[in-house]
Design brief:
- With 491 residues, this protein is an all-beta fold.
- It has 4 domains: 118 residues, Lipocalin (Beta Barrel); 120 residues, Beta Barrel (Porin); 121 residues, Beta Barrel (Porin); 75 residues, Immunoglobulins (Immunoglobulin-like, Sandwich), CATH 2.60.40.10.
- Helix content is 1%, strand content 64%.
- A hairpin with a 2-residue loop joins strand 12 and strand 13.
Length: 491
């Protein structure tokens, strides 16, 4: 896969806090790392800084993005420089532990750790001997006064810093966003057109339509998060203000190409987008790589192994990755002599539009391109891939667990009323067999709405129950006394 991180527009306390479900959202804290380098007379280097992580939990699947400040970079003469580093992540969680890696990373970053309520502790290591820890806490902010669930569409205008480090490129196009808000967290898929693919000279060689996962936190009437691709093609921090069915946002912050710009969207629907295919799938693959075109001594190389699929769905938009383990790779010396080497783990991008249960895409890969088709039905994902070199891969995977019990949205509109007025509670759940709401509301349908008229400010708790247990979410109705009436002036 041609790493677009190097080539293209690369494209995070007032009322009671809303209960969180899953690991989706923004996390922040600190890190401390160390490494002993034999090339530097076995000197040990240590450093620390701030860490921010955005995660999107879909079933047991856990894509995301990590940003570390004050990271130490080493030069060939063992001098160092400090800077900011960002990496996309993917991994899995069972709810109490998590395991994350950086896709297609030659340094082999591994992050493993535990979750305890709203805190995460991670241990980081890589193949070079880098070790250390991260301590993170969930970022919440003020209680949300808007619900961003639904479909948004509009336009964007971005600028990138080219690989040469000085030239800037501007581009624009359409942008659509499907979001589901649960409490103060929101997640979904962003689709952006006209994304330029650059060569090292900053010449545009293709314009792509890219779908990316999005996750973040709603605080008051703002959304702060990150757009990222689990296969590490494209990422950027984003911040937006929501009001009057519109979303106005900016893109800025650490990213390999310093992507910056703005977008303006209009909400076209308030229903949470379908997400029934989101999750983690496990299975196997078989591949046949063609060395006949450029090797004298090697023909076709067959191999097989385990495969997994990570998917985030928002309506018809799909973002994710196909992960292949124990791959082989053919390496040429440029003169027709080739060797077969262990390729380790390989992450292939999966993004596009779902049509009749199928997603088809063509994406850049090395000096060529891959063409992939994935078919989704019930709890299975099957697919095939071919590339410009004549390599062929097929895979089949089953969802690792039934759809996770979750509350997709629980909101109130309006959130502030005057004594004697009414307001509407609305909710959407997945995997639930029953739903109840406290404060006298009682049993309700698994997705729906109900009118309430509290006499005072009230925190409502929704409990969704399913075969795997129960989950809760909360929302607050603020009730104010009516303004006193003015007496008419006496004559």
């Amino acid at each position: 896969m041609a790493t677009r991180k190097l080539l293209i527009a690369m494209m995070l306390v007032a009322a009671p806090a809303v209960a969180q479900t899953g690991l989706t959202g923004n996390w922040s804290g600190t890190y401390a790392l160390s490494i002993q380098l034999s090339a530097c007379q076995n000197k040990t280097f240590t450093w620390s800084g701030n860490a921010s992580v955005t995660l999107l939990q879909a079933g047991s699947s856990l894509p995301g993005r990590i940003d570390l400040t004050n990271f130490t970079f080493f030069n060939s003469n063992c001098t160092t420089a400090a800077g900011e580093i960002t990496n996309d992540l993917f991994g899995t969680t069972d709810g109490s532990t998590l395991s994350l890696t950086v896709p297609n990373d030659p340094n082999g970053w591994q992050l493993t750790g535990t979750v305890n309520a709203d805190s995460i502790v991670l241990q980081l290591s890589d193949v070079n001997g880098l070790t250390g820890s991260l301590n993170l806490a969930r970022t919440t902010g003020a209680a949300p006064v808007v619900d961003v669930s639904g479909n948004w569409s509009g336009t964007y205008s971005f600028t990138d810093l080219c690989p040469n480090g000085s030239t800037k490129k501007s581009y624009s196009g359409s942008l659509t966003l499907g979001l589901t808000q649960v409490g103060s967290t929101a997640a979904g898929v962003l689709t952006i057109t006209n994304v330029p693919l650059y060569d090292q000279n900053c010449s545009t060689i293709a314009n792509l339509t890219q779908a990316m996962s999005v996750a973040g936190v709603v605080s008051g009437s703002t959304f702060t998060g990150v757009a990222f691709d689990p296969s590490a093609l494209f990422d950027f921090p984003m911040a937006a203000t929501i009001g009057s069915n519109g979303m106005s946002g900016t893109v800025a912050g650490a990213s390999p190409t310093s992507t910056a710009g703005m977008f303006n969207l209009t909400q076209s629907g308030t229903q949470a987008p379908a997400s029934n295919f989101s999750g983690h799938y496990d299975g196997t693959y078989s591949e046949s790589d063609n060395g006949l075109a450029f090797c004298f001594n090697i023909g076709t190389v067959p191999f097989a192994g385990t495969a997994s699929v990570s998917l985030v769905q928002a309506g018809t938009a799909i973002s994710g990755a196909v992960i292949l383990e124990d791959t082989l790779t053919i390496v040429s010396d440029g003169f027709g002599n080739c060797a077969v080497l262990n390729g380790g783990e390989e992450v292939l991008p999966l993004y596009g539009t779902l049509s009749n249960g199928a997603v088809s895409e063509t994406a850049p890969f090395g000096a060529g391109a891959i063409a992939m088709t994935v078919n989704l039905a019930d709890d299975t994902a099957t697919g095939s891939m071919t590339d410009s070199f004549g390599d062929v891969m097929t895979f089949s995977a089953a969802r690792s667990a039934a759809p996770v019990l979750s509350i997709l949205s629980f909101s109130v509109m309006p959130s502030a009323i005057v004594t004697g007025q009414s307001t509407t509670l609305s909710w959407t759940t997945s995997g639930a067999t029953s739903v109840s709401i406290d404060n006298g509301v009682g049993s309700q349908s698994v997705s729906g709405s109900v009118t309430v008229s509290p006499a005072q400010t009230t925190l409502y708790t929704l409990t969704a129950t399913g075969p795997s247990g129960s989950v809760t979410a909360q929302t607050t109705v603020t009730v104010s006394p009516p303004l006193p009436r003015r007496r008419a002036a006496k004559p």
